[in-house]
C-alpha cells in the first residue's frame, strides 16, 4: 500500500478566503500559509488555475493568477512541493506550458507537481475571450498538449503535428530538473478524460465527490489501463476535498459562525457541500477520510476552510489527523 501524502490548496481567492482587502497583505497571507505548511511537513502546496473566484456574486473579489503565485511560493520555500490542482489546458499553448513548467521546476529545484485538465469554467472562458469548445474537443486538445509537453521536456528539439496543435523543432531549455519529468497529475471526470489519464498521468486527481463515486472512477481507470497495456499501479490516485476540522464541537461552531459573519453566501455554499467536505473533530475527519483510503486514495489535496481566522487548523490536522490515516 502506498504511503499517504497530504497537500493543501494555498489561499488564492477561490472562495473569499483572504482576511483583508489589501492585495499585498493577501499575498503575505498566502505566503504565511505556505511557510506554515512547509514547517508542518505537508507534501505540497497547490493553486487553482483560474482568473476569477468561482462563487457567482463574488467574482469581482481579488484572485491571484496561478503560475505567478506559484513562482513566488517556490522562491520562498525549500521543501514544499508546488503545483496546480489542474492547469486549464485551454489558457496556454502546450509549447508555452512546457516552457513555463520547466522554468518553475528549475526555480523550485525540482519540486513541481504538474497538474492539468481539459478546462470547464465556461463563464471564465467567455469573460476572458477563450473559445469554449465541446468537452470532447477540449479532451482531444489535452491529449495532444500532454504529448507535446512530454516531448519538449525530454527532447533537444521537438516536432509534432496534430489536429489541434503543432510545433516544429521547438526547444525547451532548461529542461525540468526532475527525471524523466515532473509528476503529471491529470484532473477531472468522465470516461474520455480517464482515457487521457491512463495514457499520460502519473497521478489521477478526482475533484470532490463521494468515495462511492471515486471508486467507480478508479475502476474505470483500471479498465482503461488494461486496454492500453499500462500498469495501473504506475498511477497514483488522489482526491481534492474541503476540510474544516476543529478541536471540539464548540471550536467548529465558532469557525462556522466566523465564516458566516465574513461572507454568509459562501459559508452556506460550503456547508451545503456535504459530499466533499471533511467536517468535524479530528476523530470525525479521520473516519471520513479513511473511507477514501479504503478505496485506494493515497494522496489528499486539502482545501482548508476558515484559515483566514487562524492557521491553527493546519497544525491540528497535521498533528491529530494525518498520522492516523
List the SSEs and their pairings.
Layout: E1 5-9, H1 23-40, E2 44-47, H2 66-76, E3 81-84, E4 87-88, H3 94-107, E5 112-117, H4 122-128, H5 135-154, E6 158-161, E7 166-170, E8 184-187, H6 191-200, E9 203-207, H7 211-227, E10 236-245, H8 249-262, H9 264-272, E11 277-280, H10 282-294, E12 299-304, H11 312-321
Parallel strand pairs: 1-2, 1-12, 2-3, 3-5, 4-5, 5-8, 8-9, 9-10, 10-11, 10-12
Antiparallel strand pairs: 6-7
Helix pairs in contact: 1-2, 3-5, 5-6, 6-7, 8-9, 10-11
Q: Which properties best describe this structure?
A:
325 residues, two-stranded antiparallel ribbon, 12 strands, alpha/beta
Description:
The protein is an alpha/beta fold and 325 residues long. Helices cover 44% and strands 18% of the residues. The chain has one domain (5-324): Luciferase-like domain (TIM Barrel). It has 11 helices and 12 strands. The protein has an 8-stranded parallel barrel with strand order 1-2-3-5-8-9-10-12, surrounded by 7 helices. Strands 6-7 form a two-stranded antiparallel sheet. The mean pLDDT is 93.
* CATH-assigned fold name: TIM Barrel
Distance between the termini: 12 Å
The radius of gyration is 19 Å
Return the average pLDDT rounded to an integer.
Answer: 93
H/E order of the elements?
EHEHEEHEHHEEEHEHEHHEHEH
Q: What would you call the structural class?
A: alpha/beta
CATH class: Alpha Beta
Low-confidence runs: none
Strand content: 15-25%
Shape: globular
Oligomeric state: single chain
Amino acid at each position: 500500500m502506498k504511503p499517504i501524502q497530504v497537500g493543501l490548496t494555498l489561499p488564492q481567492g477561490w472562495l473569499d478566503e483572504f482576511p483583508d482587502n489589501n492585495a499585498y497583505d493577501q499575498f503575505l497571507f498566502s505566503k504565511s500559509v505556505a511557510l506554515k505548511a512547509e514547517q508542518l511537513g505537508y507534501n505540497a502546496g497547490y493553486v487553482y488555475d483560474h482568473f476569477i473566484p468561482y462563487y457567482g456574486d463574488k467574482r469581482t473579489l481579488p484572485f491571484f493568477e496561478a503560475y505567478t503565485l506559484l513562482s513566488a511560493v517556490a522562491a520562498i520555500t525549500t521543501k514544499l512541493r508546488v503545483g496546480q490542482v489542474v492547469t486549464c489546458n485551454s489558457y496556454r499553448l502546450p509549447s508555452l506550458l512546457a516552457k513555463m513548467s520547466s522554468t518553475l521546476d528549475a526555480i523550485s529545484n525540482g519540486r513541481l507537481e504538474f497538474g492539468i485538465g481539459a478546462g470547464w469554467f465556461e463563464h471564465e472562458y467567455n469573460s476572458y475571450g477563450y473559445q469554449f469548445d465541446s468537452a470532447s474537443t477540449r479532451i482531444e486538445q489535452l491529449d495532444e498538449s500532454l504529448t507535446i509537453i512530454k516531448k519538449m521536456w525530454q527532447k533537444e528539439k521537438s516536432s509534432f503535428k496534430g489536429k489541434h496543435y503543432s510545433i516544429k523543432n521547438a526547444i525547451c531549455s532548461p529542461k525540468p530538473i526532475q527525471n524523466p519529468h515532473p509528476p503529471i497529475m491529470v484532473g477531472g471526470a468522465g470516461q474520455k478524460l480517464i482515457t487521457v489519464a491512463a495514457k499520460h498521468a502519473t497521478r489521477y486527481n478526482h475533484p470532490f465527490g463521494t468515495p462511492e463515486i471515486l471508486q467507480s472512477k478508479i475502476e474505470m481507470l483500471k479498465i482503461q489501463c488494461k486496454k492500453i497495456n499500462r500498469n495501473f499501479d504506475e498511477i497514483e490516485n488522489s482526491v481534492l476535498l474541503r476540510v474544516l476540522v476543529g478541536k471540539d464541537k464548540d471550536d467548529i461552531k465558532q469557525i462556522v459562525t466566523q465564516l458566516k459573519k465574513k461572507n454568509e453566501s459562501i459559508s452556506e455554499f460550503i456547508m451545503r457541500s456535504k459530499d466533499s467536505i471533511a467536517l468535524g473533530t479530528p476523530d470525525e475527519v479521520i473516519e471520513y477520510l479513511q473511507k477514501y483510503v479504503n478505496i485506494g486514495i493515497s494522496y489528499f489535496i486539502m482545501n482548508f476552510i476558515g484559515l483566514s481566522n487562524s492557521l491553527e487548523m493546519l497544525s491540528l490536522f497535521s498533528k491529530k489527523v494525518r498520522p492516523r490515516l
